[in-house]
Structures are given as C-alpha cells and as structure tokens.
Design brief:
This protein is an alpha/beta fold. The protein has two domains: about 1-105, 60s Ribosomal Protein L30, Chain: A, CATH 3.30.1330; about 110-265, SPOUT methyltransferase, trefoil knot domain (Alpha/beta knot), CATH 3.40.1280.10. The chain has eight helices and ten strands. The strands form two sheets. A six-stranded parallel β-sheet has the order 7-6-5-9-8-10, with helices on both faces. Strands 1-4-2-3 form a four-stranded mixed β-sheet. The two termini are about 35 Å apart.
Length: about 260
C-alpha cells in the first residue's frame, strides 16, 4: 500500500529544500544517501508516479508554474526552479517537478509465465539509461507486458531513465533476473517463443513473428550484440531489414520496430 499525500500539509510542507554540493548519479541518487530512495523528475514521470498506487512517495517539490500539473490531494513543497535543480544531477530537465520516492516493489517472473499471450522485452547487456527509458516508452506504446534484464546490469528505475520513459516505468513491469539463458529456458518451458535480434541472419523479424502468441524479444548491447550463450538459447534469430548504406540501428530504435511488429499481431 503506497503512502498517499493528503491535503493536510506535513511538517516540512512549504519549507525550502536544502541545497547540496554533493555529486549525484544519473538516477538522482546522492552519494552516501539512502539507497532505498530515488528521484523522479519531469512532468510525465512525476505525474505517472503519483497516480501509481504501488509507489511509496516521500517528498514532492514543485515550482509555482509546475504545481498546476499536480492533482489536488498531494502535498507540495514549493521551490524555485533553481532550488529544485540543486537537488538533482547536473543537467536534469525537471520542468519544475521533482519527486523523491522509493523503488517499486520487485516482481517475479512467475507473475507472467502463465499468460496466454503477450510480448516481453529482454535486454542483454544494454545499460544506457536513456536507451532503456526509451524502450520502456516503446514497450508501453505497443502493449508489451514486461521488460527483463539482469539485476547487476539494470540501472535504477529513476532519474534519467524515468525521464526518458515518460511515465512508462509505472505501467510496464520490470523483472530483474540472475541469468538470462536460464530465464529463456523457463520462458520456453512455459510456452514463450524467444526471438533474438541479430543482423547476421537472413530471417526477418516479420517472418519470425508468424504464429507467435507469446513472444520474448531479446536485444543485445550496441556494438557487441547478443552474447553467444544468450543467442544460443533463443528459439529464433531475426533481423530488421535496413538499407545497406547503414550498418545498424540504435538499440532503442530497433526495440521500437520489433515491438511494433510484435504488437500488431
């Protein structure tokens, strides 16, 4: 049960945020700060989090103009744009809104293994938070039900990633696993068909998706692509046809195309 803001102000409501000179990472987590707290910023990311009952919120900062985007019933700590910037990493485009919150509760694959149909996205070594955020956004747009990645490689679902996702981390489930190859085996045993994106095969993504009701799209990192053992555990390797004048696509663009192809089926 998430902690809900009430119309009655808290003791810190209305207080100015304290400035800090501490360095922050891309997820907005200050060095030495509580690792159970993350920052979300930007209108779409913050609004989606406030509407997610699974979120446990801590503090919400808003500039005068941005406060108009917050529904009634949520406590706001008024702050100027520069004061909010002082709480976040350099260059954070926060649009006058910043929410300190706790990470979403972890999910397990057992929640989705038995689904009769659907699309999953699996990331093999993709670590750039902007790319992952963009893939969350595409996953939400094309109706994917979840994203799978290794725990140790998945950046925190906050900050830059959440801003790029534009609220999609609240609607697309995230599953952290220890071993991708073993997870592909578990998916196969539950009737999921896995397709690894690889440029060296002649089979196109459209051909590979024929008659696949439960599909997991597997994407590797830019440059290295899928690791051999992960590729070996995919049921099919497929490519996205592109002009010979271009060697490859950005991984988030490739994910969007593959998700579109899977979603329209």
């Amino acid at each position: 049960m998430s902690q809900q803001y009430t119309k009655k102000p808290r003791a810190n409501a209305g207080k100015k945020p304290q400035r800090t000179n501490k360095k922050t990472s891309g997820d907005g987590q200050k060095s030495g700060a509580n690792k159970n707290h993350i920052w979300l910023w930007g209108i779409h990311a913050v609004s989606a989090a406030l509407h997610n009952p699974a979120r446990d919120h801590i503090r919400l900062y808003a500039s005068k103009n941005a406060a108009a985007h917050i529904p009634s019933g949520f406590d706001i700590i008024p702050a100027s744009v520069s004061e909010i910037s002082s709480l976040l990493p350099d260059g954070a485009v926060h649009q006058g809104l910043a929410l300190q919150t706790r990470p979403l509760p972890p999910r397990t694959l057992e929640d989705i293994l038995g689904h009769p149909r659907g699309v999953l996205l699996m990331l093999d070594g993709v670590t750039d938070p902007r790319n992952i955020g963009a893939m969350f956004r595409s996953a939400a747009a094309f109706g994917a039900i979840g994203m799978i990645a290794q725990d140790r490689h998945m950046p925190p679902l906050g900050g830059v990633l959440a801003k790029a996702a534009a609220g999609a981390i609240e609607t697309v489930a995230s599953y952290g696993v220890v071993n991708l190859s073993r997870t592909l085996e578990d998916l196969a045993n539950a009737g999921w068909f896995s397709i690894g994106l690889a440029g060296e095969t002649r089979v196109t993504i459209s051909q590979a998706l024929q008659n696949a009701d439960k599909v997991c799209l597997v994407l590797g990192s830019e440059g290295k692509g899928l690791r051999p053992n992960v590729a070996k555990h995919c049921d099919q390797l497929a490519r996205i046809p592109i002009s010979p004048d271009m060697e490859s696509l950005n991984v988030s663009t490739a994910a969007a195309i593959a998700l579109y192809e899977a979603g329209r089926r």
